[in-house]
Design a protein that fits this description.
Layout: H1 3-15, E1 21-22, E2 26-27, E3 31-34, H2 39-50, E4 56-59, H3 62-72, E5 83-86, E6 89-93, H4 97-106, E7 112-115, E8 134-139, E9 145-151
Parallel strand pairs: 3-4, 6-7
Antiparallel strand pairs: 1-2, 3-5, 5-6, 7-8, 8-9
């Protein structure tokens, strides 16, 4: 992870003072664990809401949040600023809502999805038309990852 992404994670953790309809019509709850006032975490939950999700949030201290991520099976190199759970899957970081829907539709034998770091232009990290390329990773149960979706930069 480069210095800028690490700095962004630190700022998100320390410096910042659900339900959805998926194909079948069933109501899904997504629980988002985050630090108390992280702006990008709040922006991501607003993006989920705009996409038809109604996330619940709970605030954890930064150290507690890291332990929560690791306990859920998020590999260290896939960590981002917030961690959600939905129907037994983990959603780590700025994962686009459409990828969460695809995960739930396909139901792979996996821990869940992750967007490591905080790539500019990912949901919740929007900065106009500027975007970094990034991958959404599928986290396998053995801790390995593979690309689930890719997004180009601007």
């Amino acid at each position: 992870m480069d210095r800028r992404k690490v700095l962004g994670l630190i700022i998100c953790f320390l410096a910042a003072p659900a339900a959805a309809q998926v194909g079948t019509g069933e109501t899904l709850v997504i629980d988002v664990a985050k630090t108390s006032s992280c702006g990008c975490c709040l922006a991501w939950t607003k993006r989920l809401e705009a996409a038809g999700f109604a996330p619940t949030t709970r605030d954890l201290w930064a150290g507690e949040l890291i332990q929560h991520k690791l306990k859920l099976g998020v590999p260290e190199d896939a960590i981002s600023c917030h961690t959600a759970t939905i129907e037994g899957y983990v959603v780590e970081g700025h994962v686009p809502p459409e990828d969460i829907r695809r995960l739930l539709a396909e139901r792979p034998d996996a821990v869940g999805l992750a967007v490591p770091g905080m790539p500019l232009g990912s949901p919740g990290m929007d900065q106009g038309d500027d975007r970094e390329p990034y991958d959404v990773l599928l986290i396998r149960r053995d801790g390995s990852t593979e690309v689930f979706a890719s997004y180009p930069g601007s």
